[in-house]
Amino acid sequence: MAAVTAAVSFPSTKSTCLPTRTSIISPERITFKKVPVYCYRDVSSGVRVVSVKAQVTTEAPAKVVKESKKNEEGVVVNLFKPKNPYIGRCLLNTRITGDDAPGETWHMVFSTEGEIPYREGQSIGVIPDGIDKNEKPHKLRLYSIASSALGDFGDSKTVSLCVKRLVYTNEKGELVKGVCSNFLCDLKPGAEVKITGPVGKEMLMPKDPNATIIMLGTGTGIAPFRSYLWKMFFEKHDDYKFNGLAWLFLGVPTSSSLLYKEEFELMKERFPDNFRLDFAVSREQINEKGEKMYIQTRMAQYAEELWELLKKDNTYVYMCGLKGMEKGIDDIMVSLAAAEGIDWIEYKRQLKKSEKWNVEVY
Questions:
Q1: Which of 63, 285, 305, 356 can bridge 351 by disulfide, Cβ–Cβ 3.0-4.6 Å?
Q2: Does 174 participate in catalysis according to the annotation?
Q3: Among this protein's residues, is 362 annotated catalytic?
């Protein structure tokens, strides 16, 4: 409260839950074999003016709440934390890369009994068993969720991950194994898993069912895009039917490293007007200049088309994978933007602000 002198003129004002899903379109949604499920479990028309003493209370202006273009309504975050994680069980764990692939990637499914209400594009944390060199429990690692909110079994009671086993030789010639990735890739059906989250809003899908969604992924960065695409093409929803264009670019080193290839090809076969699919296999493919086919090299073949799509109000770009991929994609966009007198870095900043450019790299 503050005393002020004023001139006064006297004259002659529960969070929405997850959307209801009804059914799964295809019985052959996934080629993995299901193992037995273990039963564990938001003034002045004036006349005269006088000087008066007044007591006024100053209030902050009402905050303008920006409405997100993404599917954020009712989204849950940090339901389970490291001190009190959810204990799930491994239901399935299978290698999805070929024997000659440079490294192993595994697809795994955990039970949640519907207790982790995640959304497509979110992540969960995993706390591996054991202790570190300081005899303290291992810290959690975050992984992008690779399943739709319905889950691979269609009952909203599971969550899936796509994990590459980290193994490398350090400068001393010693073999080093990533703690959490090896813990996960070695899991057997029935084993317990400490899960935190869900977390993240950056990669949530747009609300608009008629949007153009361009997905750029490398390696296990395919995870959130698999979750989108299952919702779009393998599921039937009362409140969502995708009528837009989904365009996936996936970059890997070898053809034996292509993840979920059969699933994506089936989607393309069934929905040719709504789904485009382009692979970039760097060690096996080259472009017309003889350059290795990285994801940005493949995108360059569609540069003008991509630029025209990007300028539309309902186009959204999502990028997930290794951090290095960002520079390669920026290099393409810089020249395209410059041709129209546009500063790409500033333009990208505006795209991010309007939720049209979304990045999750590691």
A1: 356
A2: no
A3: yes
